[in-house]
Write a structure and sequence with these properties.
single chain; 313 residues; alpha/beta; pyruvate-formate lyase- activating enzyme; 11 helices; binds iron/sulfur cluster
Length: 313
Amino acid sequence: MSVLPFPVEDRYYRFSQYLRQQFGERVYRVSLDAGFSCPTRDGHLGTGGCLYCNNRSFSRDRANNLTPVKTQLIQGIEIARKQHKADKFLAYFQAYTNTYGSIKELERLYRSVLDVPDVVGILIGTRPDCVDDNILALLNDLQRETYLSVEYGIESVYDKTLEWARRGHTFKTSRQTIDKTKNLGIHVGGHIIFGFPTESRSEILDSASVLNETGLDALKIHHLHVVKKSTLADLYQKTPFPLYNEADWIVLISDFLERLNPNIVIQRLVGDAKPGTLITPQWTMKKTQILQKIHSELERRQTYQGYFLNIGI
Ligand code: SF4
């Protein structure tokens, strides 16, 4: 029996709790768009993007018209100081595939934010098939200088789903890249989507044990939604399929958390669409209300993240 890394009253391992444990104070993520593309967009693996992805900014001019990341970061910090009362910040390379470039370009980019005052580390979101040994060596160097976390888009542990979603990689690739990254002692997060028509409810719940085996440090969970200008939007219009409503999502996520290793930090439990892009499902509750309901559901059951894994409290 081991001890939960979070107060049982929290019911799951919140990212805010982890950041306080790591840095001793409130830390806020500032999202950055460094102008990268993705292999499913630029022709290497496809041109339409992953099935569910909004293609709104598929413009060739996008990268040229972006504000430099350092300026984005400084401006984001100014806003976060006022709106979120944070004093320390993580530079979050979030948009698209943030390791999809030359080593020289990546090194220049990542290092460009390290000397911004009150920045305590960097988060890098990317695809598991876009990280080779040279990039891992760079990340290994960086983690010696600052806090570093890499977030991989796993999206599903089932190849049938990855194929349907036109991801262009398998779960084996995710598994291998996570292993290599963790072997270097780098903090690894994963991103997963539930609600694909290719997966049953029990298959979704079975994902918990598969993800537990990967040794992931953190996890973001999204519900599948259909957004404008995605390939999925056309497909859904022709052949609609059931999507999660709020009530079923709250029960699903509560069931899933009970099966998930309690040492995995939860960074997200519900998806977000950019304003004006969502087609369906149109949920009426705000994100904070859904999080509150998941908490209440686990409280009602008197359970918590990892409850079924015989982890003591
Ligand atoms: S889902 Fe991610 S990897 Fe796929 S096209 Fe969109 S940004 Fe790129």
